[in-house]
Design brief:
The chain has two helices and four strands, in the order E-H-E-E-H-E. With 108 residues, the protein is an alpha+beta fold. The longest helix has 15 residues.
């Protein structure tokens, strides 16, 4: 045995399990994505470049009510808070491999 054969080595291993990617956390099919209401009347749309393939994918895998909006963007959802919209846009982008972002807010 070499010199290292008799040494005891200890490693500190965290006892928490790894967290799944943010896209895997609660990003599953929903009939309708986004906020149910907006007390302020403002809505933050989550959009992507329009394509038939991406629309079909988003509708079948994530947001059943996704559509092509009046500006020509694929709109997956709208949220009453910018932070929630940003989080959803990031998770949807990670899940699909496509770029999603928040469009200008819709105000009453």
């Amino acid at each position: 045995m070499g010199v290292f054969g008799l040494m005891a080595v200890r490693f500190m291993v965290p006892m928490t399990s790894p967290t799944p990617s943010s896209a895997a956390q609660s990003l599953a099919f929903q009939d309708s994505c986004g906020s149910r209401g907006s007390p302020s009347g403002e809505w933050w749309p989550v959009v992507a470049s329009s394509s038939r393939e991406l629309l079909a994918s988003v509708r079948s895998r994530y947001c059943g009510d996704a559509y092509i909006n009046a500006s020509g963007w694929l709109q997956a959802a709208s949220f009453s808070e910018a932070e929630a919209a940003q989080d959803f846009a990031e998770r949807l982008a990670e899940a699909t491999g496509e770029r999603f972002w928040i469009a200008d807010p819709l105000r009453p």
